[in-house]
Amino acid sequence: MKHASLGEIAIKLGINKSQLAYYYRLGLIKPIVKVGRMNIFDADETLKILKNIKTFKKEGKTLEEMK
Predict the structure, then answer these.
(1) Residue 39 φ/ψ, nearest 5 degrees
(2) Looking at residue 1, what is its pLDDT?
(3) Which of 20, 21, 54, 56 minimizes the number of CB atoms within 10 Å of its CB?
(4) 8 Å CB contact between 9 and 51
(5) Does domain 3-66 sit in CATH 1.10.10.10?
C-alpha cells in the first residue's frame, strides 16, 4: 500500500484511527494530498514516522518534543 487514508493505515497496522488522527492534528504526520475532505498519506513514510514516535516515547520524549 503506497498511498492510503488514515483509516486504511490504521486497519493495516492494527491501531486506532483516532490515535493517527491525533498525530495528524499535532502535525507529526502530514498528508501528501487532499482529495475532497479526505487526506491521503504516503503509507511507507507514515509507518516510518510511527516507528520513530514509538522509539521516542520509549526514550521518554513527549509528543511536543517530537514536533
Answers:
(1) -90, 135
(2) 62
(3) 54
(4) no
(5) no
- What is the percent of the chain with per-residue pLDDT over 70, rounded to a whole number? 99
Q: What is the pLDDT of residues 37-63, one digit of tens each?
A: 889 999 999 999 999 998 999 999 998
Read off the C-alpha cell for 32: 501528501
28 class by beta-carbon count within 10 Å (0-12 exposed, 13-18 middle, 19+ buried): middle
22's grid cell: 491525533
Domain ranges in the chain? 3-66
* Dist CA 12 CA 7 (whole Å): 9
Residue 31 CB burial class (10 angstroms; 0-12, 13-18, ≥19): middle
